[in-house]
């Protein structure tokens, strides 16, 4: 017998969705408004999106964001995957505290991480720029990749790996043909989340960015201080759409990984 939840819970969920998504929808709607006056709808236009493509400052900020996001994602994915592989064979006594350390960047507020990294770079006399932003993004992205890959390890077991070694496969053959294909959805999902976080990050980047390394979120913040313009609404809309697409793609790979059936035969 199916039990229905209390009606107030449904109302609460609907109100929560409205509270979260209505402001986002308004930003997207007014990015097509044919006037610079906020809140005054004058018609539909794509002019603000066209002007973005002609704005050199926007293109420079976009290029900086893409460079930082690509480099930090690649390195964070490699480091996070290796961390998940290492933690898998770690003893229980060491695994619990190590897990806590790896989860720490997810728990720590962004402003604290940004300040702490700024102090570190200052003490090491490292000039602020794209390199410091990359290091900062790798620092918090590794944890997310680790979580995604560890989740894949938790659900796959060791039966196929043990069977491959019993049949004479070496460690690297087992990893290449058995382990890696099974954890690939988790690696891809972690990489997509890391890319999304890097592309959208403002707080940490604000503290560790140099004068010539402005990213899109920092550029948007600087423009908003002068007033919300239709170009900013258009830029925010593009970032929202890219972020949603990447999150949905990450979820697709995770669901695809969960739905994969274990094969009964080995490829060697």
Automatic annotation (TrEMBL):
CDD domains tied to this protein: TM_PBP2
Main location: membrane
Transmembrane segments: 12-32, 66-88, 100-121, 133-154, 175-196, 234-254
Descriptive protein name: Spermidine/putrescine ABC transporter permease
Family: Belongs to the binding-protein-dependent transport system permease family. CysTW subfamily.
Record keywords, A-Z: Cell membrane, Membrane, Transmembrane, Transmembrane helix, Transport
Domain ABC transmembrane type-1: 62-250
GO CC, one annotated term: plasma membrane
Subcellular location(s) of the protein: Cell membrane
């Amino acid at each position: 017998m199916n039990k229905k939840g209390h009606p107030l819970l449904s109302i609460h969920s609907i109100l929560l969705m409205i509270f979260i998504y209505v402001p986002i929808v308004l930003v997207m709607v007014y990015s097509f408004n044919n006037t610079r006056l906020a809140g005054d709808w004058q018609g539909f236009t794509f002019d603000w999106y066209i002007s973005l493509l002609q704005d050199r400052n926007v293109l420079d900020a976009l290029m900086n964001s893409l460079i930082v996001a690509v480099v930090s994602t690649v390195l964070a994915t490699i480091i996070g995957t290796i961390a998940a592989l290492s933690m898998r064979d770690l003893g229980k006594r060491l695994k619990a505290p190590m897990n806590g350390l790896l989860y720490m960047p997810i728990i720590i507020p962004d402003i604290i991480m940004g300040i702490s990294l700024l102090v570190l770079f200052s003490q090491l006399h490292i000039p602020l720029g794209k390199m410091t932003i990359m290091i900062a993004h790798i620092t918090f992205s590794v944890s997310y990749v680790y979580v995604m890959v560890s989740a894949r390890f938790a659900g796959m077991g060791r039966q196929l790996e043990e069977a491959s070694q019993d049949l004479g496969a070496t460690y690297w053959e087992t990893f290449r043909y058995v382990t890696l294909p099974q954890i690939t959805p988790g690696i891809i999902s972690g990489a997509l989340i890391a890319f999304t976080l890097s592309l959208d990050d403002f707080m940490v980047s604000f503290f560790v960015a140099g004068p010539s390394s402005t990213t899109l979120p920092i550029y948007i913040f600087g423009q908003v201080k002068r007033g919300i313009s239709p170009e900013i609404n258009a830029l925010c809309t593009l970032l929202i759409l890219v972020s949603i697409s990447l999150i949905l793609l990450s979820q697709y790979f995770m669901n695809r990984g969960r739905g994969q059936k274990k094969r009964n035969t080995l490829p060697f």
